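Project channel, design review

CF: Before we commit to the Catenuloplanes atrovinosus constructs, I'd like one complete example in the thread so the newer folks can see what an input/output pair looks like. Taking Multiple sugar transport system substrate-binding protein.
RD: sounds good, go ahead.
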Amino acid sequence: MNRRQVLLGAAAVMGAAACGAPSGNDRLRYWNLFGGGDGVRMVELIDAFAASRPDLDVKASTLTWGPPYYTKLSMAAAGGRAPDVAILHLARLSSFAPGRLLDPFPQELLTAAGITPDRFLPAIWDRCVVDGQVYAIPLDTHPFVMYYNTELCRRLGLIGAGGDLVPLRGADDLVAAWSEARKLTGGYGLVLDTFGVSPWRLWWTLYRQLDGDLLTEDATALVIDDAKALQALDFMRRLSVTDAVAPGQMLLSGAVALFGSGKAAFLFNGEWEVTTFQTQKTPFSMVPFPEVFPGTSTDGIARTQADCHTFVLPHQRGRTAEGSRAALDYVRFMLDRSVDWAEGGHVPAWLPATRSAEYLALDPQSRYRDAAATAQLDPPAWFSGSASNMETLAGSAFGAVQAGTLTPEAGLARFKADMQRLIDTPAPV
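CF: and here is what came back for Multiple sugar transport system substrate-binding protein:
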């Protein structure tokens, strides 16, 4: 048996055990990967939906984030006995072989539910469409952003008359601000994770600000611009080695702890730590990722790495229109409550929510909403996306550059070699 046959056979057994019979109009099975504060908020929303639909038997399962989740979801879908609806990172859509592991949303049901392209950002919606069919519906965008301690920044003279952070543009201005912040804190000016996927998020943000591309459209070849890639890596090395305003080696938990305790004035991270710092009563706010290389992108905007949580229909044998309608009812319910979901930090994908007074009143959540329009998802490939092999390998190579154990040239060479191996590996499905 080849690899695909083993996968399909195992999936059939697992799917049958996990999900039972295909769904109808009287039940809804939902899988997600939300933990922590996100998980608590999602449970509240699921309970609210269940209460609003006593005619549906609603059961939600929260699985382990990352590779375990995606392995189980792909196996259940390959067996055709998956949950009725599930969460998928948009950057991983191509790895789920739309049409094989995912079923499309029926267009007539989307129209009836009012889920139309004009209610989402075009660049995000376009990634959800494959061969003219909609395979994903965006819930949110979660961009890489910059947190700042408002009290420390006020002492540094970085808070303007209106109470906002003064604009910081360009590598030199940013490093200068972080250098002064380090003197004030006695710790670091800037903190970030250097062991996980944050090195990938930082490098991809910087590289895309320089207009760099990574893969051909069909993901069969590298098109890395070495000069731009090294410019991004040189800046990353500058942070921790040359100017030493940020740590060379630090876990995400350490970065969050230092920023939360006032030992660092700035933090690069995803926006999901909002409730952490609100609970700790840290004086903080947030802005989109700064423009490190002004004027270098063709569209003149400060691009930033991001991904999106989306709803998908994992493949089911005998999926019915009633089952799809129940799933879409749930999706629409969640979209209508996007402001509740946004309290945890994510930027709503549903444009009616981002334009609402309720969302605009959220502080600091609404302050970085424009980052969704500059979101740079991973390039489409079977090996890319959140919790993917590509992000893990990139984090290792670029994290070593930040730590000072690899030169930018050596880090780039390692990443390119790893990427070529991924390209040369046949897609598992």
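RD: helpful, thanks. Confidence is low (pLDDT under 50) at residues 1-23.
CF: Residues 144-305+378-424 form a domain with the D-Maltodextrin-Binding Protein; domain 2 fold (CATH 3.40.190.10).
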